[in-house]
Specification:
The chain contains 19 helices and 16 strands. It has 462 residues and is α/β, with parallel strands linked by helices. The protein folds into three domains: 134 residues, Rossmann fold (3-Layer(aba) Sandwich); 163 residues, 3-Layer(aba) Sandwich (Rossmann fold), CATH 3.40.50.300; 143 residues, Orthogonal Bundle (Helicase, Ruva Protein, domain 3), CATH 1.10.8.60. α6 packs parallel to α7, α10 crosses α12 and α13 crosses α15. The longest helix is centred in the N-terminal third of the chain and has 32 residues. The radius of gyration is 28 Å and the shape is globular. The relative contact order is 0.07. The protein binds adenosine-5'-diphosphate (ADP) and magnesium ion (MG). The site of adenosine-5'-diphosphate has 18 residues, from α7 and α15.
Length: 462
Amino acid sequence: MAKKYRILVVDDEESITFLLKTELEDLSDFDVDVSFNGTEAINRIQSTIYDIALLDIKMPRVSGIDVLRFINEHSPTTQVIMLTNVIDYKTAIETIKLGAYDFISKPYDPQQLLATVRRGVERRQLVIDKEVMQRELNRISGPSGLVGESPVFRQALENARKIADSEAFVLVQGASGTGKELIAHLLHNESPRRDQPFVAVNCASIPDQLLESELFGHEKGAFTNAYTAKQGLVEVANGGTLFLDEVGDISQPTQAKLLRFLETGEFRRVGGTNSMKVDVRIVSATNKNLMQEVQAGRFREDLVYRLNVVSIKLPTLLERKEDIPLLIDYFLKRKAKANPKRVSPEAMAVLMRYNWPGNVRELEHVIEGATVLSRDDVIGANDLWINPSLAGHVPESPPAAISDAPDSYKSLDEIEKIHIERVLKFHQWNRAKTAQLLGITPKTLYLKIKKYKIKIDNHTES
Ligand SMILES: Nc1ncnc2c1ncn2[C@@H]1O[C@H](COP(=O)(O)OP(=O)(O)O)[C@@H](O)[C@H]1O
Ligand SMILES: [Mg+2]
């Protein structure tokens, strides 16, 4: 027997509740309870889980809005549809803001009512699926989104947790794609500053002349184009955590200013005369060896000591290969909520043999790409787009994008687009390296990116 959906109708006009009940129960998959006032409705909601609640807004004493608030708090998956007498848009919009899913004005059109109820039922299912899914993902990763059971990784995670609630400045070291940014978030989220801002600055992606004014702000007229004064990110982060990503890429002059700020907590906006003080905790990250940078004369030693009160070193994926299946499982489930794909044993063997220069980020991209490319539920070795010379394995058959199955024939343009995207991802969106590997000039690459409207993922540029 099909599932029956439970519906609660609350209205102080008996004629309305009677009509709604009869109409909805005419359809075999609805079970309708009615209440004539808000108090009774609240009692029912405490003992029954409803899929949908239809609430009249205007009722004496306890109003529909009060009931809506109660539902939000005690039964948040129940979808609420408000019944309004005339279209009072202001009130209707207000109830949507409060969390109602939709509203219907009386006298209502039965077709429309039914369609709205059906959509509510579907929406509730989505909400529940998402929650269940999130719980499942949290079970694998913990709330931090960091997956890994290997001893090296657990040790790093444990260290991070231990120092999260101290005020110490932390330097997170590790190759690109090892999870430094996720660790920075964890350090903030598990610190007493968690309710204050977390502000990330990617020091490598901001041109040096701009970095100082990004960090410390500027006064009006400080330089051409400084039409208004602007707050610096250190001010935005006040009370919270400032994450300096790719800190090894800061220029010498900015290093000096950063050092002064770290020593005193004081700074001046560019073009400003007052010095200001803020309270921020600094977490920084780099994929460089800062001591080597010091020896090469590119980085100030005193700044290293300031930043690196405590350091956390993240292992490469190669150093924790046993985590690969777990990570794959995590990415597959995250990609396809309801029914995640599986990885064939051959594909798994390739994935385990590969040396992962781009670490977890690269694994994530390979799995996401393979999920899109594989045409059934199982990801085969041919769906994986990884550098075969590094995998110690050359696929015997062509990749799926040019597989022999007639229904997979794609136009040359499509294949070119897919190929460019994969190489871009492989090189973490570095266009120079991508152009070189593709054997075209950066200019040509640029034109192709435009032509195919390839979305450049700036977030993963680091
Ligand atoms: N342990 C991990 N578990 C799950 N996802 C991870 C893990 N480490 C990294 N990732 C994912 O890999 C990508 C790169 O991580 P990120 O923290 O930006 O690396 P980094 O800053 O070291 O270059 C992100 O999408 C991140 O979610
Ligand atoms: Mg990063």
